[in-house]
């Protein structure tokens, strides 16, 4: 088998036997390990988001904040937790040999990308809107108008909000890349229907690049992981 052919796997259509049948389509050989890599990275970044968010909550006194502001931050926390749990369950699902639905992957990843990017932007907007909160009130003395005043130290929550915004934006971009790859797989499958069965090849997928993917392919467990990724769309 040539190097180009080894990048793809022929997926037989539902209910079709393998005996010389051409009913099916090509899909990337490394689809399953690439999905698992996405799940792992998404889970890690979700943990970073939750860590920054919880640490920021511990640095402020909640009774000094209006209830609507607290409610939106609880919404952020629930969002981080929900997508982290869903991603962990998807990791278990794909490692146990079950076949994920590409349409579900597209909707979940697209929705997560939109939500996380909006959280990142709204976090920075909230930081600018409540900038007066970021200074330590205890450090502000009774200074005369003509006296020089040193720069006041920033409140710790500012750093947590900045970290949460950056991690949320990174996680949103990662979900967006995840959705883009799944959309490509879905569109390729749609082009392989009708008279053009099997003539359109999807983009080749590699785990951490072509070089590392080639090294991993030398191990039986990795090849077996790639061979079990049949996904019927």
UniProtKB/TrEMBL annotation:
Annotated keywords: Membrane, Transmembrane, Transmembrane helix
Domain DUF7775: 32-188
InterPro entries according to UniProt: DUF7775
Pfam families in the cross-refs: DUF7775
Segments traversing the membrane: 34-54, 74-94, 106-125, 157-177
Keyword Transmembrane: yes
The protein, known as: Uncharacterized protein LOC117143654
Record organism: Drosophila mauritiana
């Amino acid at each position: 088998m040539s190097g180009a052919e080894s990048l793809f796997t022929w997926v037989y259509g539902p209910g079709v036997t393998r005996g010389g049948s051409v009913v099916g389509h090509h899909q990337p050989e490394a689809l399953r390990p690439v999905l698992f890599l996405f799940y792992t990275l998404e889970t890690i970044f979700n943990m970073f988001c939750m860590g920054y968010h919880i640490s920021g909550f511990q640095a402020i006194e909640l009774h000094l904040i209006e209830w609507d502001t607290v409610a939106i931050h609880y919404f952020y926390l629930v969002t981080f937790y929900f997508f982290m749990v869903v991603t962990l369950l998807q990791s278990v699902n794909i490692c146990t040999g079950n076949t994920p639905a590409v349409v579900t992957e597209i909707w979940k990843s697209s929705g997560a990308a939109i939500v996380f990017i909006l959280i990142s932007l709204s976090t920075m907007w909230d930081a600018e809107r409540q900038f007066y909160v970021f200074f330590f009130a205890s450090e502000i003395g009774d200074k005369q108008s003509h006296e020089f005043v040193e720069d006041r130290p920033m409140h710790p929550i500012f750093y947590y909000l900045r970290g949460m915004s950056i991690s949320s934006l990174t996680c949103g971009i990662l979900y967006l890349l995840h959705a883009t790859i799944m959309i490509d797989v879905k569109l390729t499958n749609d082009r392989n229907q009708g008279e053009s069965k099997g003539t359109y090849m999807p983009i080749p997928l590699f785990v951490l690049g072509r070089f590392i993917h080639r090294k991993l392919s030398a191990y039986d467990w990795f090849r077996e992981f790639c061979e079990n990724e049949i996904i019927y769309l």
